[in-house]
Amino acid sequence: MINRAFRNFYWGFLFVMVDFRLNGFDVLPDIIGYILFVAGLNLLWETHQQIFTKARTYHIIMAFLSVFSIYERPNQNMEGIHFGPLGFLIGIVILIFSLLAIYHLFMSIKEFAQELSAPDISAEAEERWKQFLYFQIAAFAAFLLILIPPIAFVYIIVMLVVSIILTIRFMGFMNRCGERLGSL
Fold first, then answer.
1. Residue 120 is part of which domain span?
2. Rg of the Cα trace of the chain?
3. Hey, how many other C-beta atoms are within 10 angstroms of the C-beta on 166?
4. CA 128/CA 148 separation, integer angstroms
5. pLDDT tens-digit readout, 45-96
6. What's the rounded Cα separation, in Å, for the pair 183 and 28?
7. Hey, how many other C-beta atoms are within 10 angstroms of the C-beta on 183?
8. Domain count along the chain
């Protein structure tokens, strides 16, 4: 059960972290990632409700909110960014709830690892949370740099590379969690 839960988290991170769009459609929709997170959290929640309740709640909310990010209208003219007030508000709400969801996931894993006497997994969960947070802050900064196109282009390429590296690290961590915590 624990291995299966962390396998869901493993694949969930692939869908949530990789944002590749074709004609405005997300090729790896976040909603699938959040559904995988909820499925994994449901497995762990059955026996450890006190640890995984908040993470499960926030991921259920994100599964609903992520419907709004499946399609984003591409910018037809390259004159700048055009945000509607509703789109901007939805984006901020999604950002806040995604931070809360991932925070509670990593902190639940940290607490679960402490309960199972796996201090290395516990410490790494906190480190991975910090990496996710810093990446989200850096991604938000990309909106400010969009006003300087040459710098923004380079910054976005760097962010893409960092996103891939972090995705691999998060997936590897979930794999280690499943193997290690599933055997305790």
1. 2-182
2. 17
3. 17
4. 31
5. 999 999 999 999 999 999 999 998 898 777 655 444 455 778 778 889 999 9
6. 31
7. 10
8. 1
